[in-house]
What we know:
Layout: E1 15-19, H1 24-35, E2 39-44, H2 49-57, E3 61-65, H3 71-85, E4 90-93, H4 110-137, E5 141-145, H5 158-178, E6 183-189, H6 197-202, H7 207-211, H8 221-231, E7 243-246
Helix pairs in contact: 1-8, 3-4, 4-5
Bound molecules: nicotinamide-adenine-dinucleotide.
Nicotinamide-adenine-dinucleotide binds near residues 23 and 24.
Amino acid sequence: xxxxxxxxxxxxxxxxxxxxxxxxxxxxxxxxxxxxxxxxxxxxxxxxxxxxxxxxxxxxxxxxxxxxxxxxxxxxxxxxxxxxxxxxxxxxxxxxxxxxxxxxxxxxxxxxxxxxxxxxxxxxxxxxxxxxxxxxxxxxxxxxxxxxxxxxxxxxxxxxxxxxxxxxxxxxxxxxxxxxxxxxxxxxxxxxxxxxxxxxxxxxxxxxxxxxxxxxxxxxxxxxxxxxxxxxxxxxxxxxxxxxxxxxxxxxxxxxxx
Length: 258
Ligand SMILES: NC(=O)c1ccc[n+]([C@@H]2O[C@H](COP(=O)([O-])OP(=O)(O)OC[C@H]3O[C@@H](n4cnc5c(N)ncnc54)[C@H](O)[C@@H]3O)[C@@H](O)[C@H]2O)c1
């Protein structure tokens, strides 16, 4: 049922929308999909970096500014994608307020809590709502970027952890509502080093940062992007409603001190 149009002008005919793609994991996902010949619409709040990175990615990338928490902006952005390409095959909900730390619970401001929920959880709902008719027409797929923090915590991370736990639940709810035409899955990264190459060289992570991971290293944006690309592919055609953890095995490790 998945449509693979013949490649035209250096692309495979399929169109993906990636939110929060001006930097970090979202940019890595956009670049990976373009390397697989997708046409990719990068969206972000950041109107300065967004157009620059889209231009650097070449002719198969387009930037549209969008606050994922604002339904009017989401609706207008999705309409622009359809106007430009006439189709949508994949949605990657990556945009988030990604700093997991809030204040102590006693001083946690409800306005801050509400904004985290609106962006990290409301955003993917709004994107799914407005993209669903077009994804259904192409038997497309959605991937939501969740987090291992949906299931384990450090102190003072209530808002982020709750938003990501909600997104894991939203993922399986959408999979049941939108199937069989649309598959919906979640990818939960662990520690991913999203810093620019120059910063990584200037301030390298420590040996113990890497060694504590069962894989012997901290993750890269490519580790996440490869999983997202697979979930959007024909090979994942029997996979929906699931959460895939990409954390170098950290969430499977006993941490009792010897
Ligand atoms: N980096 C990690 O270690 C890690 C671990 C687990 C989960 N994640 C998740 O992966 C995703 C990407 O993380 P990252 O580290 O690349 O984050 P990042 O902060 O580097 O990038 C997030 C992007 O989202 C954009 N954004 C924020 N609010 C937005 C809004 N309202 N509308 C549109 N765009 C908005 C930002 O401008 C930014 O470009 C997030 O969902 C994050 O929660 C990251």
